[in-house]
Amino acid sequence: MAIKVESNEALEIKTNLTRVSQQVDQLVQQYQRETGSVRLLAVSKTKPLSALEAAYAAGQRAFGENYVQEAVDKFHALAHLADIEWHFIGPIQSNKSRLIAETMHWVHSIDREKIARRLSEQRPKDLPPLNVCIQVNISGEESKAGVALSELNDMVALITELPNLRLRGLMAIPAPQESHEAQCLVYEPLRQAFVELSKSDSMIDTLSIGMSGDLPAAIQSGSTMVRVGTAIFGERDYSAKA
Ligand SMILES: *Cc1c(COP(=O)(O)O)cnc(C)c1O
Fold first, then answer.
1. Are 242 and 50 in contact (CB under 8 A)?
2. How far apart, in whole angstroms, are the C-alpha atoms of residue 24 and residue 7?
3. What is the C-alpha separation between 29 and 16, in angstroms, rounded?
4. In terms of Cα–Cα distance, which of 122, 145, 216, 135 is closest to 168?
5. HAMAP family, per this entry (predicted)?
6. Which domains does the chain have, with CATH numbers?
7. Tens digits of per-residue pLDDT, 129-187?
8. Label partner for 159 (CA 20 to 30 A): which of 113, 187, 206, 235?
9. How close is the Cα of 125 to the center of ligand 1, in Å?
10. CB 62 within 8 Å of CB 39
11. pTM to 2 decimals?
């Protein structure tokens, strides 16, 4: 994380951010969504601090991270950029929940009762409630993460009871599909569930879907927050991880 990004790389990130924002705006128009209704979350996992700083300098404030230790390290290292909004979007082991509860503003990947309870218990009293989305499994057996749509109501009821969590909506990571139409078809049950849910609770305003590879389908399907990594920061190099 001490690696310095060359300034031309900073310029590239700025250019990419502008391009992705324009693409989002154009899709919002194309699919007759309300202006400004889709936020851009910059997914910075595996990227060095200098990449986040470049995005910040270009005006980006919401960042998404997948790995707990990396997320917490970045949170501390960039504490001077006090208006960054940190989103945790990766799998959560229960022994790591406290670190998340103490640092993050949002968690998109809640799919177990135990994790929800721990995050609420461990949220420091001097922080506002943790904004959370329930991760829904819309790809069936291809994915192990996420609650089934048939179990969604139970999870909603549970989280609504937890004092230090604020339920904001739903998140999904669909299995890759071959066409725009197939992507929309996979999103359709989630879109319907989100519409129903947001009718019942005015705090529910977030449908976290859409990545670098399926922005048009996600925005057509009602996304209010797209999570974009590669199209902003370039390809990820996992060789140092693993
Ligand atoms: C990595 C990741 C993203 C971003 O994916 P890209 O294809 O790089 O845009 C979005 N959401 C989640 C949950 C991720 O893990």
1. no
2. 26
3. 20
4. 135
5. PLP_homeostasis
6. 35-233 (3.20.20.10)
7. 999 999 999 988 777 799 999 999 999 999 999 999 999 999 999 999 999 999 999 99
8. 187
9. 31
10. yes
11. 0.95
